[in-house]
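Lecture 7 notes: from sequence to structure.

We start with a single chain of 147 residues. Read the sequence below before looking at the structure.
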Amino acid sequence: LGEVSFDEKGDLVRRLDPTRYVITTYTNDDYGKRIGQQVSLPDDPDLRAALASQEAKLLAQLRVAGNNQQQRETVLHDLLVFYTSQSLEFDKAASLQFLITNRDQLYSLKLTLACVCKTYAERNKNLEALIQEFPEKKAFTTGLMVK
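Now the structure, written as tokens:
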């Protein structure tokens, strides 16, 4: 389970996973119902240095790929995974959307970004907007809404 913290009412407000790599902070309403959550990384200088090194390598690969569409899509995919799953830098992931030409990759990125918000209400609003842009993905996208 990892380390957990509770507020004075006994509601879970923070969890550090067993690997000590991901911190999840929960937002609860006045009645203790969870209405949102955010993930972040611990403030560890060694971890930050390792992530910066990995990011530099990926960005160098993107520059080398140049106009080679297949290489470019592969490196963009790797950068998306890095920003959304490893470094948790969602703003950097969002900046990649203007470079992505593969519609499935673009949907995947926008779906991830739609789900990364402080409250479930905001998440649902973002998912509704995504359905408008990708109507062919409506069934899947709707299934991710939190009631």
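The mean pLDDT is 91. Keep this in mind for problem set 3.
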